[in-house]
Amino acid sequence: MLDTLATTKNFLSSFTFLAEGSPADHVYNHIAPVSKWGAGYWVWSGNQGNLVLSGLILIVGFIWAANKIKTGPESEGSRRYTTTNKLAHMIEVICVYLREEVARPLLHDRTEKLMPFLWTTFFFILVNNLLGLIPLLDIQHLASSELRQHHQAWFGGTATQNIWVTGVLALLAALVFNGAAIARLGLGGYIKHLTAGAPWFAWPIIVPIEFLGQVLIKPVALAIRLFANMTAGHILLATLFMFVFQVWDKAYVLKVPITIISVVGAVLVMFLELFVAFLQAFIFMFLTSVFISLMDHHDEHGHEHEHDHAHGHEHAAHA
């Protein structure tokens, strides 16, 4: 019996999220065991591995889905318009919903041009969020004690809880919604929009605030929202599992209830994390659409109506 308990404990301690002194250590990016170019620099990390893996999943997966969704030959009759594969059908439904119910009410005539970027943003974030729920990091540490000891990994973790990754995503979004505004309004119209219709003597105050909002505040909000939500869930999950490891040598009267509560809580948090994975991908894509729409107008009346409409959606996202 004691041998069995010892073996079980050794098995559990192999998992990073149980053996770490701090639950946050499991969330941090792990470098790969490759030659370093000076102290503190590396050529590969677990998050980089996940980014490459997510890119491959998207390329291969969507080529496959497109083949399943596309219209078949005329010889199939009406069936040629039917998507027969369930997974491809789900992807098609998501794409149509995002285009028709989310983007088109905000972007109108520019929806078709901007949807490739918005779809890519949504699914790239979603795939990385979902990959973060798979214990790829812990599987490597279970297979190699050396990787576990040095906190190293070739892939694994959650790339979207890395502030550098979410920062780059937000930077790309900022380039798109500012570039789309200049393309729509022209450089002069873009600058005029920054005055917010205020009298000229208020421009020294209004213009810097509006400009910072466009190029800094909105992108930073996008980056921090995604980073914070993905980080918080993983730390909570790691903390719950760490409780199990901490009481493993204690009496059964303490060990059993804490283990049950921790495991049940972890299962519930995993369902919450799954929901958050979809929600945060949606919010990032949705707010990018909102930020584009806020700088898109044909006349003053239309601008005021659309500005209020977009702000209403943005407040709904914050709620």
How are the SSEs placed, and which strands pair?
Blueprint: H1 2-13, H2 16-19, H3 24-27, H4 46-69, H5 86-107, H6 111-131, H7 136-143, H8 145-149, H9 163-194, H10 203-246, H11 252-293, H12 300-318
Helix pairs in contact: 4-5, 4-6, 5-6, 5-11, 6-11, 9-10, 9-11, 10-11, 11-12
Molecular structure report:
With 319 residues, the protein is mainly α. The protein has helices spanning 2-13, 16-19, 24-27, 46-69, 86-107, 111-131, 136-143, 145-149, 163-194, 203-246, 252-293, 300-318. The longest helix is centred in the last third of the chain and has 44 residues, at 203-246. The relative contact order is 0.12. Mean pLDDT is 81; it is low at 7-19 and 298-306.
